[in-house]
Design a protein that fits this description.
Elements: H1 6-17, H2 22-30, H3 34-44, H4 49-56, H5 66-79, H6 94-106, H7 110-126
Helix pairs in contact: 1-2, 3-4, 4-5, 5-6
């Protein structure tokens, strides 16, 4: 949304910073939220339904599966102090980190996760 419509998305950011939930601000400005937007794009590009559904539910997944993994990845990023561009990154919450330790362990431990984050960050900067 921000890449395709930066001026309109600026309005979303302003509304969110004023206290409106981001999803509601997106819906007010665009008529749908970023999860719905992303799922729509994924479907139009011919992505498998499981991928489109994971995108659509990346804020609400409560069970295991791809959507759950995306949700946990977002939480992990937040616990590492990586924000989403609308909500400022906050210092890691010890309780949040403790809750994510099983996920971090499944991914090879904290050093492996931090190494992946570093590699992805370098790749994004290079792109």
């Amino acid at each position: 949304m921000a890449a395709q419509e930066p001026v309109r998305y600026g309005e979303v950011v302003e509304r969110a910073r004023a206290g409106e939930p981001t999803g509601l601000a997106e819906r007010a400005v665009f008529g749908l939220n970023h999860a719905e937007w992303g799922a729509s794009i994924a479907r139009s590009w011919g992505f498998p339904d499981e991928i489109a559904e994971a995108i659509a539910h990346h804020h609400t997944a409560e069970q295991h599966g791809l959507a759950w993994a995306v949700t946990r990845a977002r939480e992990l990023a937040a616990s590492l102090g990586i924000g989403d561009g609308v909500t400022p990154a906050v210092p890691p919450d010890p309780d949040s980190e403790a809750a994510l330790m099983p996920v971090i362990d499944e991914l090879g431990g904290a050093p492996a996760v931090l190494d992946r984050v570093d590699r992805y960050s370098r790749a994004l900067r290079a792109a």
